[in-house]
Amino acid sequence: MGPGDLSEVLGPLPSSHDSRLLVGRETFDDAGVYLLSDEIALVQTVDFFAPIVDDPYDFGQVAAANALSDVFAMGGQPLTALNIVAFPTAELPLALLTEILRGGQDKVHEAGAHVVGGHTVIDSELKYGLSVTGRAHPSFLLTNAAAKPGDRLVLTKPIGNGILATALKKASAGDDRFTGIVTDSVASAMISLMKVLNGLASRGALAVSSRCATDITGFGLLGHASHVARGSNVTLRIDSSSVPLLDGAMDAWKAGAMNDGLKRNASYLEPLVEWKVADPGIRALLCDPQTSGGLLVAVHPDRVSHYLSRVEGATEIGEVIERDTFALVVD
């Protein structure tokens, strides 16, 4: 489902009016936030998908990191997680599922949380993910509706893993166009980065008094950036030359690696972006759906250097300006 589909599907549904619901679905934020007391807010999210990598243990870790990221993107700390599994029992051995669950559990434990159960259905396609519950202080939330003009935009992980994962699948299927691009080292670096939790990036944002962040996942960098622009009623200006790319991602796109999610994202973003860069490869990568991507954080200009020093790999990629004709401007 693309970002544009959310409005069409959710639009006819009535909104909830409860003063304790601090963050609902209206701004397409990363998780829901419900006030329990003056000092405790509940953060809830769910995410699952089909395998993006071949190794079951790696897949479990990546899927868990991706689901946990939504809590971190709100400034929360994960507490508990429930496994969500769709599994073709007639086609795959149960030992494979054990490895997936082991990978997920190890990543949940790394985040300081606990797996407390889950639900499994028999399906024709393998899918795995988590429903995660966390906690946050209601006065120290990160949301996609708190960016202010003058803030600088910082991205904490390079992009391009959607295109690279597509190329990896094609290479594994014997497509010679990609065998020399998605080398073992390139694939290993991509998978390792997807397994990195966004906890440090989240805590760093709170430490520099940021109140605006989102994680970069299925809607791509620009799709999630557009939600920040909409939620905060601002325009985001992004310097495309500053956006970090995964090794091999541009070469994979040039060799023909595309995915349906990228096409849907690009179509949705067409009326929202003022493009000042013509390179079709750069445009594609900025729309590329990510799995367990980094955080996009709006940081006060006086605190950018402090944030960059706290979060390894973080890169300043743009700024927040007053709302203009377009939600996004890409230089």
Structure write-up:
- The protein has two domains: 31-136, 60s Ribosomal Protein L30, Chain: A (2-Layer Sandwich); 152-330, PurM-like C-terminal domain (Phosphoribosyl-aminoimidazole Synthetase, Chain A, domain 2, Alpha-Beta Complex), CATH 3.90.650.
- It is of the alpha+beta class.
- Strand 2 (32-35) and strand 3 (41-49) form a beta hairpin.
- It is built from twelve helices and 13 strands.
- Helices cover 37% and strands 24% of the residues.
- Helix 8 (220-232) packs parallel to helix 10.
- It has helices at 3-10, 56-73, 94-110, 161-172, 176-179, 184-194, 199-207, 220-232, 249-254, 260-269, 280-287, 304-310; strands at 21-23, 32-35, 41-49, 77-87, 114-122, 127-136, 152-155, 212-215, 234-238, 273-275, 295-299, 315-322, 328-330.
Give the helix/strand layout.
Layout: H1 3-10, E1 21-23, E2 32-35, E3 41-49, H2 56-73, E4 77-87, H3 94-110, E5 114-122, E6 127-136, E7 152-155, H4 161-172, H5 176-179, H6 184-194, H7 199-207, E8 212-215, H8 220-232, E9 234-238, H9 249-254, H10 260-269, E10 273-275, H11 280-287, E11 295-299, H12 304-310, E12 315-322, E13 328-330
Helix pairs in contact: 2-3, 8-10, 10-11
